[in-house]
Amino acid sequence: MAVDVGRFGIWRHADGLDPELAVQVERLGYSAIWIGGSPPGDLRLAEDLLEATDRLVIATGIINIWQVPAAEAAASYKRIATEYPDRFLLGIGIGHPEASGERYRRPYETVVAYLDELDAHGVPVEGRVLAALGPRMLRLAAERTAGAHPYLTTPAHTREAREILGEGPLLAPEQKVVLSTDPEYARSIARPVVQRPYLQLVNYRRNLLRLGFTEADLDSASDAVIDALVAHGDAATVAARIVEHVDAGASHVCAQVLTGTDADPAPALRELAGALGLT
């Protein structure tokens, strides 16, 4: 049975997650939390979040396959899925060549081999998703997993991804948001997050160039590219961008709320939940 992640969730770095926030997220009506930042393979944080909540689905966004052996990921998956059936989704991905050096030369084949190992260790296809941006990885996601979890994308990419995946597979893009009606302030929050490291990483650059941005846009982190990648405005405006992904074919959208340094994300999550009709 496939894990039902619902329509709207949140994406947050593991360092910014704890059971208290998970309880708030569930009460606000979000259906899933995606643990970002390449969490360690023991996935104890996922268990803590599941234990604190009643219905929330927890997904990894993503386990980095260079850092976590497939056997370790599989053992953690089976432990958690047994204790919390239908509430955990194992998101995996290849990461970035800049962080993986010479080993990255055959990324597609490496992902295929990792999926083969997950098969051998009993992780079901419906219990895992693949980080995917380009057409080849998206097709692999459709063939070997429950679907795709694209990161740092636009509704235009979501539309293309749905065409490649077909109607059935999960398509769960991440969308960065800043709740502020001051564009300059919003960009001051968004630009540092997007510019470094993401606009320096070849896989994201390649995907954004495919979507029509220029090298100059990416090198300068232009307003055009920041506004395309980070929705900002009042809650209704931000919610409308999230819904654009749904209209373009997303099954689920996970919002990554960006705030000032160390600011509590809960107020923004509450506003956004209201605009999305969750509360």
UniProtKB/TrEMBL annotation:
One Pfam family in the UniProt entry: Bac_luciferase
Domain Luciferase-like: 20-117
Any one GO cellular component localisation term in the record: cytosol
SUPFAM superfamilies per record: Bacterial luciferase-like
Annotated InterPro entries: Bact_Lucif_Oxidored, Lucif-like_OxRdatse_MSMEG_4141, Luciferase-like_dom, Luciferase-like_sf
GO molecular function, one term: oxidoreductase activity, acting on paired donors, with incorporation or reduction of molecular oxygen
Gene3D superfamilies per record: Luciferase-like domain
Transmembrane segments: none
Name the UniProt record assigns to this protein: LLM class F420-dependent oxidoreductase
Organism: Pseudonocardia bannensis
